[in-house]
Amino acid sequence: MRRLAGFIANASGWLSRRLGRGGGTTLPGVVLLKLRPHALAEYAADLHHGSILVSATNGKTTTTRLLAAATRVAGYHVVTNTEGSNLERGIAAALLKGANGAEVGLFEVDEAALTSVAASTQPQVVVLMNLFRDQLDRYGELETLVDKWRDLLDDLAAQHEPPMLVLNADDPNIAALGRDRDNVVWFGVDDTSHAVAHLAHAADATMCRNCGAPLEHTVVLVGHLGHWHCPNCDATRPSPTISATQIALTPSGQHITVRYPTNAGPPITMTIDSPLPGLHNSYNIVAAFAASWAIAARTQRPQDVDAVARVIAETKPAFGRGEIISIDDKRIQLLLAKNPTGVNQNVRTLLNSPGELHVLVLLNDRTADGQDVSWIWDVDWEPLRPRLASLTLGGDRAWDLALRFQYGGFDMDKIKVAPDPSNALDIALNDTLPGQTLHALPTYTAMIDLRRVLTQRGYTAAYWSDE
Amino acid sequence: MNAAYTVRLCHLYPEMMNIYADRGNIAVFRQRLAWRDIALEITEIGLGDIVDPGQHDLYYLGGGQDRDQNLVAKDLAANAATLQAAADAGAAQLYVCGGIQLAGHQYVTADGTSLPGLGILDLVTEAGATRLIGDLVIDATIEGTTQRVVGYENHAGRTRLGASCVPLGRVVSGHGNDGESGNEGAVLNHVIGTYLHGPLLPKNPWLADLLLGWALEHRYGQDVALRPLEDAVEARAHTAAIGRAGVRR
Fold it and tell me: For residue A465, is pLDDT > 50?
């Protein structure tokens, strides 16, 4: 019966593609779970080394891609959902597609879906990177999500073989989840040279989860990530086993030095050149190294660390995460705009580019974007003000963006509003001079729209996504 | 700017009550005054701080996460008399989302705990089993003028009004105070409470100017007129948001 369900589910994806309904990457998962509600557990049980789950508000796609490369080069046969949905149906679809002979399931998991996915897949390694305020209409309050993750880790700890936890020492909420637990591998950023002066506006994780007192940050790196301690109790940033000790950010990526433990003897350091821009990607890179180390430890397989470093260095930005597309004599950099913390990092990346800036922001309010657009007011756009040569605003809620910039004191003469993404792209490209880069910051569905326009014009390969 | 006039804003607990981009409302106060050469002076009140009696013309309290809102509810008690006196003296007050709950007599949480509120608005709030989430469009009536107001709501509380305050408006689309009565928000003299965020004021400049007018009246008497602004971008965003909410004009 399981094979029949799998056959029907696969056929649905094939049919969807034949009918031009797009994607077909997730539909088989939907069908499979309808036919066999426990399919996720059944397929996951076939994986010899079990599953690895990666979750976070920001960075889970990039980290999962880095880790997929690292585990493949280490010789594992890996099945992953990096091209589909990060909900149960997407993972079911990935398992269905890659079930034959896969030893490791590596899955990016939506924050809110983590509990149910973990219950089905019985993970061997769980990577938790950060939690930021995001789409409150979908995810609810951050505190509630942290509580859910704590309950999940309690349940997993009671398993016969509890998973190894790969946790971000620099996020106080994530660190609190690992307090007094075994099997934790901590990662973080030790290089303090990229610190900013303050916690981000409306930062979360400002209170100690152990005692409730306000936390103190000695170093703020990204949002509320940094070096922190509680002045009132013994809660403090755990010393990371695997850390970024030196980071040099460039417009096209970064040089990053990672400290990595060895089985016998002192830790080694490795420096790589990565095409992933921004400090947020430093966290993704170091998380991938840490998870890779945890997987080797858990499966007791020796690691070729140099090979891992090489493939991490070669990994290009994921779909819309800093990816650069050439358009005749101009270039477009796509920077997905998801939530205030993510966009604040995009703004930092833009400020790191030389010269005057041409920017296109596209805001939609569909389900996958979050219907509540108030978050654009929590983004610190203002540092862009003196650097902007042109700013084009588009998407379903382009006029909300226009208000945000107007009340942010931007010169409205430099701002053009065109809700239709195709028009907005034309206007923005027209303002961008030959040789220059247009930085596009679309929300999720706006990125799909923009990508479709670019594909229609012959600039990129087709990309299917059902989310 | 060498402003002849200054509005004194008391921003209550901005560090904790900021969940729905409340700083957008503050930015609107600042800019709309600046465009009219009027200064804005902001005093931020945090946990343990005491509000200086009679020193402010405009008060703002936004929404927060449950934990923060509980902490603020306890802390507010020390400032309740000052805020009530300010409301009685005609100062403008805006309570958004968690703010409207705290401005009422009490908030009963999901586990049955009763948190006392300021009691400035005659209303009580009880946590419901589900959250009321989505676009919210209302027809708001204040001082005899009715205007369509648009925003977003996301709250578990069900708010019911007492006899001495009237709703801010009638729900055209969305849930409003309790999802049943068709009422949204509450108004009592120069005090407004509402579940509308988005944030509220950028797309609804009429409400912003109403509050600023009250604030100037509190400080200087009737004689400070607010010069009308073009509000072209505001009007486009207002129309677009109403369209996205599925309401026909």
Answer: no
Secondary structure (3-state) at B35: coil
| Residue B23 clears pLDDT 60, i.e. is over it | yes
Q: Could you give the 3-state DSSP secondary structure of residue B43? A: strand
Provide the 3-class DSSP secondary structure of residue A137.
helix
Looking at the fold, whether A391 and A302 belong to one and the same domain comes out as: no
Given this model, what pLDDT does residue A466 score?
A: 32
List the CATH number of the domain containing A346.
3.90.190.20
Query: Which residue segment(s) compose the domain that B93 sits in?
Result: 5-244
- What pLDDT band is residue A24 in, cutting at 50, 70 and 90? low
d(CA A217, CA A196): 11
Residue A109 predicted with pLDDT over 60: yes
Please indicate, yes or no, if residue B249 is contained in any of the structural domains. Answer: no
Which of A372, A377, A409 is the closest to B23 by Cβ? Answer: A377
Q: Is A120 helix (H, G, I), strand (E, B) or coil?
A: helix
A464 confidence band (pLDDT: 50, 70, 90): very low
| Other Cβ atoms closer than 10 A to B5 | 13
Domain boundary pick from A314, A344, A369: A314
**Residues A249, A183 share a domain:** yes
In chain A, what are the helix, strand and coil shares in percent, each to the nearest 5?
40, 20, 35
**How near does any CA of chain A get to the CA of B163, in Å?**
32
* Number of domains chain B contains: 1
Task: Based on the residue annotation, tell me whether B197 is a catalytic residue of this protein.
Answer: yes
Q: Which of A417-421, B93-97, B244-248 has the lowest mean pLDDT?
A: B244-248
Residue B110 predicted with pLDDT over 90: no
Contacts of B19 in chain A (CB under 8 A): 133, 136, 141, 202
Q: How many angstroms separate the CA of residue B65 from the nearest CA in chain A?
A: 6
Beta strands in A122-280 (DSSP E): 125-128, 164-168, 184-189, 216-222, 225-229, 242-250, 253-260, 268-274
A and B: number of Cβ contacts within 8 A: 94
Residue B5: strand pairing partners: B38
* Angle, helices A88-98/A114-121, rounded to nearest 10 degrees: 30
**Which 3 state secondary structure label does DSSP give B49?**
coil
Average pLDDT, chain B: 95
**Known catalytic membership, residue B10:** no
The pairing of strands B5-12 and A437-442 is unpaired
Domain enclosing residue A184, as ranges: 39-314
Same domain, yes or no: A234 and A250? yes
Interface of A with B (CB under 8 A): 133, 136-137, 140-144, 201-202, 206-207, 365, 371-378, 396-400, 402-404, 406-409, 412, 417, 419
Which residues from B are below 8 Å from A399, CB to CB? Answer: 233, 236-237, 239-241
Judged by DSSP in three states, B102 sits in helix
- Nearest Cα neighbor of A285 from A261, A327, A264, A316 is A316
Among B190, B197, B218, B238, the active-site one is B197
| Cα separation, A77 vs A101, whole angstroms | 7
Which of A133, A137, A143, A374 should one mutate to test binding to chain B, selecting the residue with the greatest count of B CBs within 10 A?
A374
* CB-closest option in A137, A378, A407 to B202: A407
ipTM of the modeled complex: 0.96
Q: What percent of chain B has pLDDT over 90?
A: 88
Partners of A244 in beta bridges: A189, A258
Query: Which CATH number does the domain housing residue B63 bear?
Result: 3.40.50.880
Q: Which two tokens stand for residue B151?
A: 């925003």
* B2: three-class secondary structure by DSSP: coil
